[in-house]
Structures
1.
Amino acid sequence: MALIEPKILKGFRDFLPQAESERKRVQGILEKTFESFGFVPIDTPVLEYTEVLLGKGGGETDKQMYRFRDNGGRDVALRFDLTVPFARFMAAHFHDLYVPFKRYHIAKVFRGENSQRGRYREFTQCDFDTVGVDCASADFEILLVMRESFMRLGVTNIEIRLSHRGIFNRMLESLGLGSSSAAVLRAVDKIKKTGEEEVRSSLREIAGESGASRILDFIRPEASSEETLKKIASLAGGEAEDTLRLSAIFGWAGALGIGDSFTLDPSITRGLDYYTGIVYETFLSDIPAIGSVCSGGRYNDLASLYTRERLPGVGSSIGLDRLLAAMEELGKKTPASSGAAALVFCEDEALLADYHKAASHLRSEGLCAEVYPEAHKQARQFAYAEKKGILFGVFALQAERVTLRDLSTRENLENLSLPEAAALIKKRLSRV
Amino acid sequence: MALIEPKILKGFRDFLPQAESERKRVQGILEKTFESFGFVPIDTPVLEYTEVLLGKGGGETDKQMYRFRDNGGRDVALRFDLTVPFARFMAAHFHDLYVPFKRYHIAKVFRGENSQRGRYREFTQCDFDTVGVDCASADFEILLVMRESFMRLGVTNIEIRLSHRGIFNRMLESLGLGSSSAAVLRAVDKIKKTGEEEVRSSLREIAGESGASRILDFIRPEASSEETLKKIASLAGGEAEDTLRLSAIFGWAGALGIGDSFTLDPSITRGLDYYTGIVYETFLSDIPAIGSVCSGGRYNDLASLYTRERLPGVGSSIGLDRLLAAMEELGKKTPASSGAAALVFCEDEALLADYHKAASHLRSEGLCAEVYPEAHKQARQFAYAEKKGILFGVFALQAERVTLRDLSTRENLENLSLPEAAALIKKRLSRV
């Protein structure tokens, strides 16, 4: 019989145990962090009506959608992000919920784009948003969640660069460029990639020579966030709710002793029309080239396409794949140990009941333990333990006494009761 | 502007925070259980080549597939189970892995079937399999994992009914019915639904009057598993590797003191051709009508469509949706508390830095804590806490002294330092 080639689609991936364990570990830390701030999980379908996902349509994502007719002839598509489904979700369930509603959602999304290096067609987003309130404290909390997430992952050297679209817009209006704001934003958004001169030449076409200079002056950070804030307030026509909000946020960060993590950077604009208030991106100081690993901002109304309920919100999104790549580069991965802490060796199949009893006991003490299922020669069982990163071998003797072998030091600890063996394993694990 | 109706596809679901929290809790317990036996996680794409998913094709699932052409013209489909992707995965990665390879995979699958009550088009399967070995100990371990999973979920009153397809086949061959085995299996598989007389009449057409009686005698359990085993061994032509394997499994279960969870039931056949050895289903004694919540068996060769490597295996699958429905019926859900343990009330926005400091401190002690973001009136903040199941209110006063309010007893504990407040919350939480 001819074999079918076990191939997978370009831009899609299998995750082998070590990679998947690490993904689960990181995802677990993120979930715990989000929950520690009172964010609650939701989930939505992978497949939705195209009409719902398209919204008003016209974006880049439209062409990238996996869109088709299902067996019932419905026009359906795979979700391409978690924001549109969240908007639809809020419209559908608003009356069963409460505000402020703080949700997180970690799930796969799908985009059929040209898959370059590091670009996947199936990838995981970790979104967290607070909707139903428009205030500085909700903005600040999202920034706290971002910072705390990286801290708990051991990625401590981060810089969250933030700005405010309202101040930017006021500056543009003072230049008579209010109607060109989308074009200006797109031009400015490229500054980290293309450099100032390229941006200046784009801006010159939109805003003229002096307008371009004024905008470039606006987006250039000063020596401190305070000075930057003072400058952009003045270029925007003075203080207002937007500058006061940034001022409050920086003040609170200082009061909590975490001011160092945040920098006011008016060149952060987040290209999208969608944002109306604070906007931010997160950079890893040790590998800036990887780009922003977590970004977002405040929007005026989440679900206006689906409901007349007004839902202002603020949120952020972590790209899990980029984060994991960054952590690998930073050496923040966990050791290769996946699977069980202890392997009960099988030397005589007549003793399998005893082997399973020994493993059961270790599990009842909260450890991971498995039995090698057949009496293969020891070398093969050792190779299995090594391949899985198993740390201890248990050789079950008679009368519930065992020999424990520390597979890293090759030391044998003989004639132990099962509780003694469990205690020793725990003690040594706590030292790792 | 006309609104878009925020509707979702039939057979697909949103999960609101309480439901999603419970799903995550149960999934977490399953993952921990699987890992405690040395099973490791993998993941595969939601979307695959149709050719790969169809395999040799011809099954019911073919018609149910969400199949379409992607933007590159490829014939692709959403996975309809986790077994076919696992087979493809093993063929693709065999040389990077080891045997026995024990994997678990918890993920969504998609079937466009008629969605009756309780039938979803998007649902979650929890699969665990051991491949690369064919021995009693591996079979037994899968049964242990099944039992332990339910125990750790608090679902203790279970009955795992098992049998062996090899013994069944020997019995059929002794009746000269070896070539009709698929038809016989399909008929027998219906006995729990339709009753004996219906099955007898189906069998009569395949096997004649005496054949039907012989088969019905074979599948009727005796008073004890020992007696049943003796009977089926004799009807199948005597003891062989298959009966010895069942005997070993029941012996080990007895030695581990968990024999009560397992019953030999020769009417368990698991309709599918796929299975060749032990087969089993799991019933909840308190709600038998819900049917099997976890089933599976041993198969001869997992990945023969994709590789010449022979991969015998044994595995099991838990339907998460049915399990959650069962747990709800059994009252095994966790209390409604989702989200934060403590809400710092906002009474004066000038004090927001202090509120955030208080919440940060509680989080640094491992608690969940959030700040109400605006100085709304107390009643509204209390309503928010109640809606979210938050247990404690924190009223931040001056100089880092707070009042703690137990929202269930309405008791106030005044003038506490933050560490004192954290200690009190932990103490009271441990009592819940």
2.
Amino acid sequence: MSFELFYWPSIQGRGEFVRLALEAAGAAYVDVARQRGAHGGVRAMQRPMTASDAERPPFAPPFLRHDGLVIGQTANILLYLGPLLGLVPAGEAERLWAHQLQLTIMDVVNEVHDTHHPISSALYYEDQREEALRRAAAFRAQRAPAFLQWFERLLARNPAGKAHLLGGALSYPDLSLFQLVAGLRYAFPRAMARLERKVPHCVALHDAVAALPPVAAYLASPRRIAFNNEGIFRQYPELDGEG
Amino acid sequence: MSFELFYWPSIQGRGEFVRLALEAAGAAYVDVARQRGAHGGVRAMQRPMTASDAERPPFAPPFLRHDGLVIGQTANILLYLGPLLGLVPAGEAERLWAHQLQLTIMDVVNEVHDTHHPISSALYYEDQREEALRRAAAFRAQRAPAFLQWFERLLARNPAGKAHLLGGALSYPDLSLFQLVAGLRYAFPRAMARLERKVPHCVALHDAVAALPPVAAYLASPRRIAFNNEGIFRQYPELDGEG
């Protein structure tokens, strides 16, 4: 049975980390909220969360339905999908390490979100813009370099080579690091132009992942939602610092 | 071989979710940074992160060393420890659900942290107090109720009874929900006094976990670091709203 992904239909957001894994593996899946008709749309996406008889409703999207399971939390979905899609090496040590990498990427994603929403997700950006300016400055100066330089170090120290985070083959953390670099480039083009000089292995990994045939085909397809200012990575030039 | 926990020695913080699991299971462990001598202290705690030959250094504490593995990210540590300590039911569905619960608790923990540090962890609270007042108000009004009412719903819908999050026995998410309620009580006593009336099952679970003999013994021991204003849960009365 194919995978059913439940996520907002108009943004990449956290769901994109799952979409990329499914696409890179060539897996059959349904992006529920992007379907037309009674079984599609946002209402269908929300039903497993809001149904009054749901024993284990997820707190928030994304979540995945497959094989009788409903699995929430982005990193947890990838923990489940990794072995099924051949996107993680065998063995407990490798799988825990892959998951640790993914959880750290999700930490960066949370921090990126809070650069434009440092006070509340329930408020407009414009109503927390002053705070966003301060938070984004700290993110650009300290957090983005700390995280990317950590990934850079891991790539440099991978005994199987600098092309992958785990061993010598593609795994789901590679796909997620691609997405992180792509998103940071969209949101902080000036800051990233400077930072990328310090993390060449991360940049090379981004480029190599983008060139993988199934990923390249996905990125060129209408299934890839363009970055926009409703998602996690948003382009507010004033949050990108001085030129 | 016993477990080695690497975490800051003077706060509960994220490490406390791991300490509680180890203590509840009666596991032998070493809290590395709290040991004296050459193999203890903060420097020993940081070594696996900073060693220039570490192939897989964690990004941040807490991390656990056991059986040749170094495992970072709080929820990942508990994913690993759950089966070893008998703190999660058997079966993939149960383990993914337990992990999903834990990841959502860690999301709340991040949000609690940001109530007092909405701009940057590198700045003092006093230098982001105005922003903290706004963020804490949104947390008290929207986020804390949304998260706790979700856990309340899960407890009410557990077919094995309202005393546990998973099935009819103690699991690590129960321990973490105990810690979350305890921390919120410390940080937001006035807001929690109101909110607790809406989440009686969460409160009952907190009380039942605190009364478990190994947990009660731990909480009464010097191993339990008191809540303080260096940790995640901090008591700044101005962040707790009106009385």
